[in-house]
């Protein structure tokens, strides 16, 4: 099956406009080998050639995890992606269980799944777990990779130490009592120590010939051209052995190119069709799939001294200046209107007194009260991307918001990055020299909230600034910190939910971000594609997909 996706290229290096000949060459070769033409995949790659696309730490954000992560690898805890009608939750993966010591709640015992083998045939066991942990957390180990550590360690900030108890058991110790720790287990993939040795102890070589435990194996990988996946007939979860023999993942960064490829039959599935092409695709008989998922698109604001966003009245005015329903129309209905960090139907939403809505008159009143007016506009610069994982249509959307904010007295200009460069910016802090020199006071990086740490703690808790977390703006609110601390310290789901409701109420009442949209994750596919379930998740399962 062949898949065209919105992989990003570093435009100023000239890659974005040249993939067609190489894609056609890969496609012809695929058809000669008789594979099903699926057209549904993602080649996660970097401006340095995408060498990490197929190792256990895919780049390009969660779209990289989606197509070059959970397809090839497993985590100790995997995500249940089988339902389109309920939020995805973690389930046992390479671990069969995780339990906390009732007398020492920083000590977790993790039982490992027996009989699992990596794609190269070597066994998965406790030694492999420790080896992979050292790769991320032990900079003295020969397999340590700082680039992998930069992404993975920030997603597992609670882990303090780890050790083998026996071949089937490991112990993890956390830095603090953390009832939400099992979610962190889902973000670290396990690669084969034997294959690392076989390719010369070189992560760049491993990326070309990787070995995980996932439902697909890598048949071939050509950076910036293709990633070809082969069914793993020996996958340990027999209910998820893929129905397709092969999947071919092709990078097509331009929405118009993807649309043309689908309409011409060159591919069978595309990610993120252009909003203005959706009706054309429908009329051609293509299937359009939409679903809510834990996605947030907005501006994360700087809270350092001198930031134009320190006054809550200015932050509220910016939120009130945006006509989100008009933006939804502009995007062809492929977004849901944001009323906060999570949707109003979400259990964590709470009871905020500030209603995020379109009210330009109230926005102007608040700005006047804060000392701004026609002769004295608020001025701010936001770092944005040209495209990227979960970024929807960032240029079009940001230009729309820029115009609307200008109408109430907030003048915005943009610092434009390619996607991987912007993710690197998000790992700095607002007071980093690179940010202050450019007078950047906000970043537009889409965020997920599939679990409490990912959605709330790492972004809003003052203890989780980069590189430990994602509090780029250096927000510090002791009241909010206390709610988030309660959510982590409790092992009772009801107590956790109540603390998260209080935290979200505080976030919205203080308008700490400019919240705009929740993506509906549009996909377009040939009607021959069968069996796909669009989970309420950033991640998707390709194993049940077949071709009619």
SSE layout:
Layout: E1 2-5, H1 20-32, H2 61-68, E2 77-79, E3 90-92, E4 95-101, E5 104-112, H3 126-137, H4 146-152, E6 159-166, E7 169-174, H5 181-184, H6 193-198, H7 203-208, E8 216-222, E9 226-231, E10 246-251, H8 255-263, E11 269-271, H9 278-283, E12 287-289, E13 295-301, H10 312-320, H11 324-330, E14 335-337, H12 360-369, E15 378-385, H13 394-408, E16 410-417, H14 419-426, H15 433-436, E17 442-443, E18 447-448, H16 452-460, H17 478-489, H18 493-509, E19 513-519, E20 523-525, E21 529-530, E22 546-547
Parallel strand pairs: 1-10, 15-16, 15-17
Antiparallel strand pairs: 2-3, 4-5, 5-7, 6-7, 8-9, 9-10, 11-20, 12-20, 13-17, 13-18, 13-19, 14-19, 21-22
Helix pairs in contact: 10-12, 16-17, 17-18
